[in-house]
Amino acid sequence: MAMLISGCSGGGDGVSGAPTVVNETPTVEPTAEETETELPFSTEDPYATEEPVYAFGPEGEIDKLADEKGWEYDGTYSTASAFVKDICESLPISSIQADSRPEWLVESGNLEGDKKAILQAGIPKLCPKWATALKQAVSGDYDQWYSSGTYVVSSKPAAEGQDETIPPGTYRAEGKMENCYWERTSEAGEIIDNNFATSARKITVTIRSSDGQFTSEGCEVWKPVK
Question: Bridge-partner residues for 184, per DSSP?
C-alpha cells in the first residue's frame, strides 16, 4: 500500500515556515497609589498639632500673649517670660548701680521697643510688688539717686553730651561712710558749704536752686528726702 505523506516544510533547509510571534506590549509598573494597601485604621496622630505648646500658669500666659502680639525681646532669652523673670530678679539689687528701681528700668534700656509691653503684661503676674516701680518708670515720674561725681544744679535733665544734673532739694546718704566728702559750690566754683566725714552713718544736705554744682566722693548714694 502506498502512503501519502504531506508536510509543511517550506524547503529543504530545515527551517519551519511558521513565524515566531514576539509580544511587543510594554510592561507598565504599578504606581505607588495602586500598590498602597489601605489600612482599616488611621495612622495620623490625633494629638499632633502645629500650634506651640505653652507652659501652664502665668509664664505660659505671658509667652502666649507675646507670640499673639508678635512682641520682640532680647534674643538672649528663650521666651518672653524668661525675660520678665530676669527683670524681677534684678530689680531688688538695682540699687547697687546707684539707681532707683524705676530709674534702672529706664537707664538699662529695658523699656525700649516691645520690652515695655512685655514687662507691663508680665511684672503684675510674676512680681507684682514691682508694679508701682514699673508704672513710675513708664510715666517718667520717679526719684533719681546720685552717687559720686559732680552735678550741675538744675531742675531740667541734662541734654546729651552735657554734664549730669541734680535738682534742688534735700538729699540723704546712709550707710557706713569712712571717707565721705561733699561740697556745694557757686556757678563760679566758690565753695558755699562742704564737709569731710571720717565716720558717718547718715548725712543730710540741702541743695539750693542758687547753687551751681554739687560734688560728692565716697558718700554712698544720695536719695531725695520726702
Answer: 193, 214
DSSP states of 204-218 as a string?
A: EEEE-TT--EEEEES
Domain range for 68 is 58-139
Q: Is residue 13 situated within a structural domain?
A: no
Final residue of a domain: which of 139, 173, 188?
A: 139
Residue 139 corresponds to which cell in the numbers above?
510715666
Distance CA 130, CA 132 (A): 5
End-to-end CA distance of the chain: 152
The answer on pLDDT for 40 being more than 70 is: no
Q: In 3-state terms, what secondary structure has residue 223?
A: strand
The phi, psi pair for 73, rounded to 5°, reads: -140, 180
- 110-125 residue pLDDT tens: 999 999 999 999 999 9
For residues 202-217, b (16+ Cβ closer than 10 Å) or e, as one string? ebebebeeebbbbbbe
Query: Which three cell numbers mark 52?
Result: 506651640
Q: Could you give the CA distance from residue 206 to residue 201 in angstroms, rounded to a whole number?
A: 17
Q: 17 in a domain, yes or no?
A: no
